Amino acid sequence: MPTFWEDDPEFWFYPIEFQFVMAAITNESTKFYAVVAAFSSNALSCVTDIVISPPTVVANKTLKDILPGRIHRV
Q: How far is CA 49 from CA 53, 55, 59, in A?
């Protein structure tokens, strides 16, 4: 999995999703943990609230929706 691209967080999720498809990973929790593991410390600091208390449903989609807006504010 590529390390997080702080200069283009929205596009970074595309190759990640391709890797999930190729590896037949469909479980949202598995996707969430894989994505969080690839984040830089700066990206993690932008979504600390989600990492500490992940949503019970579609956590990975939540990260994809929220992170780009938060990281560009830093």
A: 6, 10, 12
Reduced to 3 states, what is the DSSP secondary structure of residue 74? Answer: coil
DSSP string for residues in 13-60: HHHHHHHHHHTT---HHHHHHHHHHH--HHHHHHSHHHHHS--SS-HH
Listed residue (32, 50, 38) closest to 6, CA to CA: 38
Nearest by Cα to 28 from 65, 64, 61, 66: 61
pTM confidence score:
0.72
Query: Rounded to an integer, what distance in angstroms lies between the CA atom of residue 72 and that of residue 2?
Result: 20
Q: Tens of pLDDT along 50-73?
A: 888 887 666 666 777 777 777 765
